[in-house]
Design a protein that fits this description.
This protein is α+β, with helices and mostly antiparallel strands. It has three domains: 5-57, no CATH class; 68-216 and 284-351; 360-426, no CATH class. The chain contains 17 helices and 15 strands. Strand 1 (30-34) and strand 2 form a beta hairpin.
Length: 426
């Protein structure tokens, strides 16, 4: 058997579980399902074609000469370029004026608004995005949406693994115009898929990207739910973005419903550090990713993590626009329904500084100082143990907390020195 996606990606802990390899395989020898770590992982049966390498050509973590910047340059060359966010036409701040609409959305409601506009203006026939699945074994999955009303079912955040294999199969079997939502690595996989399949290239008209600092395994939600319910429980649904009045935009909660109809809320007072900052239940593939802003997408959406915006618990969106159609939509919003204005791209970058620092510390590990290397090493240990046996090492968590406090103190000193001694804008 010749080396393929299993040997060169999966066994090297570089697979993110996007499912593109499964859909592109011409002899259907690949399938995908959850592995023991709660992540999607392809499996192979015999029959792989000796001279075929399509599975590797569409993998976002194998093609070493297909970095996001190279792919995005092919797509958007001629636009303005900026470090981190890539090519762009304009950057925007966005917020729906209807509070109830915002409270159902991940941030300011930009994704819901744009997807509906694509249908309304007849730019696409169907929307491909993620919605709750109602299955304790698979809480979320990609679905097909044909009407604006249906799109409301897909609102909110999803910190849960999904695979694109079924939805890409659907695209190949149905000759229609599509828009699809995607995390950065998924957006890259779709672009590689389009380069190797003319049907996908012609039918997928828009990729709506989502900023991402790290993905999570299915055990991330399960572990927090078990702690919240104070016993092992089967989850029927989860709202990963329950917004709490009188708190900041950061202060959202997770709301779980079990199969018996019981509801419990995690206010993330402890779990935010224990299960997010610590890197627990984060796929190893995320350690090899540097694309936060979905550089291959036509538009990228994110939370406005800026001091003046996080005070509003209902949330605000920021957008990076790389496609003229999205730019025209945002220039012509109904001002009675939406607040939308251009924003300095530097502020867009600033809003995600935390994710940028986190990505850099893993991707450019060799260039980090001693303190940062210690932090990364502890996080990798926590990451490895959580994926292997779903356990948390409390001793390592305490060590991590101590090192992060030292880092925060050091960063504060540097900040104050630059601001007050060097008189630099920071």
């Amino acid at each position: 058997m010749k080396p393929n996606i299993i040997e060169l990606v999966v066994k090297e802990n570089r697979c993110i579980g996007c499912g593109a390899c499964v859909s592109i395989c011409p002899v259907n020898v690949l399938s995908i399902d959850f592995n023991s770590g709660g992540l999607y992982e392809p499996k192979e049966i015999s029959g792989c074609l000796k001279k075929c390498s399509l599975c590797l050509k569409v993998c976002p973590f194998y093609e070493k000469d297909q970095y996001e910047d190279i792919l995005s340059k092919e797509l958007f060359y001629g636009l303005e370029y900026k470090q981190h966010i890539g090519y762009f036409i304009n950057t925007y701040e966005f917020s729906k004026l209807n509070l109830n609409e915002k409270l159902c959305s991940a941030s300011g409601g930009a994704g819901n608004y744009l997807l509906k506009k694509l249908l309304e203006l007849n730019f696409v026939d169907e929307i491909l995005t993620v919605k709750p699945n109602g299955d304790p074994n698979k809480l979320f999955k990609f679905n097909v949406f044909k009407t604006k009303d249906e799109i409301d079912e897909s609102r909110g955040s999803v910190y849960y693994p999904v695979s694109m294999d079924e939805i890409l199969d659907y695209v190949l079997k149905n000759d229609k115009r599509y828009a699809i939502t995607a995390l950065p690595c998924f957006a890259k996989a779709i672009r590689l898929f389009q380069k190797n399949n003319h049907k996908a290239k012609n039918r997928i008209k828009f990729i709506v990207g989502l900023v991402c600092g790290q993905m999570k395994s299915k055990d991330f939600a399960q572990q927090i739910a078990d702690e919240t319910f104070k016993n092992k429980t089967l989850i029927k649904s989860v709202n990963f973005r329950k917004k709490i009045p009188h708190k900041t935009a950061y202060g959202f909660a997770f709301e779980f419903e079990n199969i018996n109809g019981g509801v419990s809320i995690d206010y993330r007072n402890k779990s935010a550090f224990k299960y997010w900052t610590s890197r627990a239940f984060t796929p190893f593939a995320c350690n090899n990713c540097i694309d936060i802003f979905a550089k291959c997408a036509d538009v990228t959406l994110m939370d406005a993590w800026l001091d003046e915006k996080i005070k509003d618990y209902s949330g605000h969106s920021l957008l990076i626009v790389r496609n003229k159609i999205f730019d025209e939509i945002l220039k012509n919003v109904n001002k009675n329904e939406v607040f939308c204005k251009k924003i300095d791209p530097d502020l867009v970058v600033k809003s995600q500084n935390g994710a940028i620092d986190e990505k850099n510390s893993f991707y450019f590990y060799d260039k980090q100082n001693i303190l940062n290397k210690k932090i990364v090493k502890i996080k990798k240990d926590i990451q490895k143990q959580s994926l292997k046996d779903k356990k948390m090492d409390e001793v390592k968590l305490k060590k991590l907390k101590k090192q992060l406090k030292l880092k925060a103190r050091k960063d504060t000193i540097i900040y104050l020195f630059k601001k007050h001694i060097l008189r630099k804008t920071v």
